[in-house]
């Protein structure tokens, strides 16, 4: 009796609090919107100029090559293309111009490119004059990079209007290394504002679409790479991953993406929202249509020049022995983390992958993720340890993208009320879902003090130890894991805006700093959708309902599987991904 009255009262207070947050968030968004007229004009102009430039380029190139010539180039994978270029079959300029044409036609459909990298032409011409192409392992290969990669004389805004025309003085380390290997960085691709969302959007460049279904999201935050590569406009691209930003769009766009162990690839010269995170460290990584290309990229980039340019990168060349290992591996598999229940298509994909890997000779054993809720709590607490201060600071004078609004509303929630709000929502009866209550209380928390942060970090170390203790098993230790990359497949953008509900499958391996990659395995079938009709999730709450609604219209869309190994075993992770793709085949 008592509980139910209490819970009714709580509900009313909670509804009021929610109303307040929504109202407050809306006021912030609107007041920024009003203040920013000048900046917005500048942003619009920049975008128009860029689109004009792309249109002109397209027209200039229209008569250079026949359709057959272009089709021949576009039909090759990265390994074949590099080899053909080295043998002089196609000049680097011809390859570049073909991919520029293709990429610009992709962006017309999906809005995936933010800028054309104009110096690429001079670079391709210079490569064309070189007498010994075989010394360049990526000779003539056009490579796309996410907008936040620094490139000399170009801006890198991460979707912030205040960063327009703030030009970089130098190329970032990765771009320097790519050029030294004979690759040709040729376009910059779109991202979600401040890279903090798994949806795709920023008010500066607009929304990017899924190449398989234009009205759906490609996933974020490396959305432009996902859309461009999935649409055939690039063979190799580079994204960044802080919570799933490489693996999630790869899964939604039907391509392969790899997040290496932190400090294997250099981040120097990249632009990001929050420098200084230790346990929530951003990594960069390759995205491509096939695993062979990811391997080609990693094998080439782990080179002396990168170790020299960035002394904090572990000077560990590509481990051919580990990659080439042919012994059967013990691989744990799981179809569900017990927190976000995957839709049937995603579960089926993992079971298919299990069968395929068994056929390739590996030993697959059932695995259970230890206490993923704890990992998620640690991730969110560390990610927003400053109470969202930094996020708010950089967005202060910006138009805030709608996909960030649910997050921003919580971060802007008045901290004094936040305490009361958290107290109430933590009375679990009040909210229909303990995890949504927890999410609210984690995000409205004020700035954590140093002792609290050190405590969180210590608990993260404990979680890491506990996680890997489950890999030690009486029948033999695990070498790798496979599991879902997400509970969802692609759907309408609006279902992907409350990010925290989505990232449990990918953020876990950021917290653990494991190499992890995504491989497309199947497509959603009508049977999957029929099974989805009975989906209730583990909590039957708003997040579960959202997962179901998002995926209801997804027949034919790609579904990936995530492969994971221990830190520093990047090459073994790529091995598992390659074995999986070899037995599944290219979709
Ligand atoms: C293609 O056309 C452009 C513009 O007319 C020209 O600058 C470029 O050199 C041409 N490329 C080749 C390979 O002929
Ligand atoms: C980038 O994405 C945003 C939102 O996702 C979209 O509005 C914009 O038009 C895109 N811009 C480009 C140049 O792709
Ligand atoms: C730090 O924050 C925790 C949790 O809010 C609190 O219990 C503790 O007293 C604080 N420590 C200091 C030194 O303020």
TrEMBL record:
Its EC number is 3.5.1.99. Keywords: Hydrolase, Lipid degradation, Lipid metabolism, Membrane, Phosphoprotein, Transmembrane, Transmembrane helix. Coiled coil: none annotated. The active site is at residues 146, 221, 245. The chain crosses the membrane at residues 12-33. It catalyses: (5Z,8Z,11Z,14Z)-eicosatetraenamide + H2O = (5Z,8Z,11Z,14Z)-eicosatetraenoate + NH4(+); (6Z)-octadecenamide + H2O = (6Z)-octadecenoate + NH4(+); N-docosanoyl-taurine + H2O = docosanoate + taurine; N-(9Z-octadecenoyl)-taurine + H2O = taurine + (9Z)-octadecenoate. Pfam families: Amidase. The keyword Transmembrane applies. GO terms for biological process: fatty acid catabolic process. It comes from the Eukaryota. One of its GO terms (molecular function) is amidase activity. Residues 95-574 form the Amidase domain. PANTHER family: FATTY ACID AMIDE HYDROLASE (PTHR45847:SF6). Belongs to the amidase family. This is Fatty-acid amide hydrolase 1. It comes from Phallusia mammillata. The lineage of its organism: Eukaryota, Metazoa, Chordata, Tunicata, Ascidiacea. The gene is Faah-002.
